[in-house]
Specification:
This protein is an alpha/beta fold. It is 38% helix and 16% strand. It has a single domain, classed as Ureohydrolase domain (Arginase, Chain A), CATH 3.40.800. The protein starts with a strand and ends in a 13-residue tail after the last helix.
Length: 304
């Protein structure tokens, strides 16, 4: 059983749609804490963070917007997430938009740089401040955590860049042209939904676990609501049709749990304002429970 630190980052600085600021509260209301406790885990910490005060004028970085506010949240998340890892707890970061993952990724590199990242998302979030066409900074966290342009500005301090070869993206189905070029140049493993259709979710997750196992690496899971198909998870401002089904998502969580390698988690982009009677929030809590050990039937742990 794990000691878990639940850290909320109620921000929408990185997106144009209002509402995901309520995400952490909705996940707690949907029973996240109770679900983790029912599985035998201890809640070592449960709180919302506040951003660092950072004054950066957007004008110099147009079309990017919310640069200073995003930087403030990223710096606060990096510090708190790193402290949780150093304390030996399993941090769960609740968003808020996906820009906050720049903080969790940097913290992981500060404390456990051998970690492999599993990015479950409709988008690769590998734009930079200059390649973004929307100006929404929830599209940059993996790029800046990899040390690309804008990292110094957002972090305000040196980072240990992510190793692009330790990143696996699954569920991708919306990529900007410049972003595609950056992904190819840096050699990130990207499994789009065609790969999911062709090979199956289980096979792709098993490949990811095998790579981490060969490297002796823990896993960080970054789970965006839009990884799922909007028919089953409507509460997200960046819906892209054709996402993962409920069963595919649960299979991914169950296999990741069975690997025994998951050391941290982001749950991001939940926008309760767009939800239907809380069903997306409830689904995300159920997925987190699967990642932390909930099963229908007990199965022996496999040696990966």
């Amino acid at each position: 059983m794990a000691n878990v630190a639940v850290l909320g980052a109620p921000t929408e600085a990185g997106t144009y749609r209002r509402g995901c600021i309520m995400g952490p509260a909705a996940l707690r209301t949907a029973g996240l804490i109770e679900s983790l406790r029912a599985l035998g885990h201890t809640i070592a910490d449960d709180r919302d963070l506040t951003p660092d005060p950072v004054a950066i004028a957007d004008a110099a970085y147009a079309p990017a917007r919310g640069v200073g506010r995003t930087a403030g949240w990223v710096r606060a998340v990096r510090r708190a997430f790193g402290e949780a890892l150093r304390d030996g707890t399993v941090p769960i970061l609740l968003g808020g938009d996906h820009s906050i993952a720049a903080g969790s990724l940097a913290a992981i590199m500060d404390v456990r740089p051998e970690t492999h990242v599993v990015w479950l998302d409709a988008h690769p979030d590998f734009n930079t401040l200059t390649t973004t066409t929307s100006g929404n900074l929830h599209g940059i966290p993996v790029a800046i955590a990899s040390g690309l342009e804008g990292a110094d500005l957002i972090y305000g301090a040196p980072i240990t860049p992510l190793d692009p070869h330790a990143i696996t993206m699954i569920g991708i189905r919306s990529v900007d042209p410049d972003e595609r070029a950056l992904l190819t140049r840096h050699g990130i493993t990207v499994h789009d939904m065609r790969d999911v259709d062709e090979f199956g979710m289980g096979e792709l997750i098993r490949r990811t676990i095998r790579r981490a196992g060969e490297a002796g690496a823990p896993l960080h899971v970054s789970l965006d609501v839009d990884f799922l198909d909007p028919d089953v998870a409507p509460a997200v401002g960046t819906t892209v049709p054709g996402g993962a089904t409920v069963r595919e998502a649960h299979l991914a969580m169950e296999l990741l749990h069975e690997s025994g390698r998951v050391a941290s988690l982001d749950i991001v982009e939940l926008n309760p304002f767009l939800d239907e009677r809380g069903r997306t929030a409830t689904l995300m809590v159920d997925l987190a429970a699967s990642l932390f050990g909930r099963t229908i039937m007990d199965r022996p742990t496999k040696a990966w």
